[in-house]
Each structure stands twice: as C-alpha cells, then as structure tokens.
C-alpha cells in the first residue's frame, strides 16, 4: 500500500479485507488504472519488468502503455519500477541482516552497484546509511 501511495495510484486491498476508498490524484487525467499491474509488479520485482513486459501484461502497445502509464502514475514505467525496487530494498535493509548483494538480487537489481546507484539517485544516500539510520 505504501508503494501505491508513493506512486499516487489506487491500491486495491485484498478482497478479504475491509473496503477502503482511495482516490488517485493522477488518475483524473486518464481512465486507465494501473493499480493491478503495480500490485503484480511489487510481487515480481526479481523478474524482468521491462516496459515491453509491462505493456504486454496490460494488453497495450509499448508506446500507448508508456504514455498512459506516465499520465496515470506521474513517472515513466522504468522509474516507477526502480522506485518500487528501491522501497523494497530499503525495507529489507531496515528489517534484517541480509548482505547487500542478496538484497539487490531479491529486489531485481542487476548487482550491488546498480542498487547503490539507485539509492544515490532516489534518496541521495548510500544503502549503508539506510541501515544505520
């Protein structure tokens, strides 16, 4: 839910939980809802989540998907996926003592350096600073 809020889209709670209405600020400009896709992607961060894969899963051409996704979410697809991976990596680093290499693999980053660059780009800190405070 935190990732969906961060990306400013609807988050659909599981059917067995109480229904809560969430409004999407960005969805007013488009009628396409990407909450199901983002929820799916959050559970598959380790996999290939290229624009082509996401567009295919959404049943759209790459060009149409990219345009509609950016209008609905406010970020290009690759940036949204990187941000989701970053948030999961941050959570794993806070929660446990996993080596950085393992965190990078679990979250779908190519390697430790890619994870480090994402931390610097998104949060302007190193992953080590995240663990320590």
What's the shape?
elongated
Strand content: under 5%
**Mean pLDDT rating:** 80
Secondary-structure element series? HHHHHHHH
Please report the distance between the alpha carbons of the first and last residues: 23 Å
Low-confidence stretches: 8-30
For the CA atoms, what is the radius of gyration? 15 Å
Would you summarize the structure shown here?
It contains eight helices and no strands. By secondary structure, it is an all-alpha fold. About 17% of the residues have low confidence.
Features:
133 residues, mainly alpha, 8 helices
Question: What would you say this structure looks like, in words?
Answer:
The chain contains eight helices and no strands. It has helices at residues 2-6, 35-42, 51-58, 62-73, 77-95, 100-107, 112-123, 127-132. Helix 3 crosses helix 4 (62-73) and helix 5 crosses helix 7. The longest helix is centred in the middle third of the chain and has 19 residues, at 77-95.
List the helices and strands and how they pair.
Elements: H1 2-6, H2 35-42, H3 51-58, H4 62-73, H5 77-95, H6 100-107, H7 112-123, H8 127-132
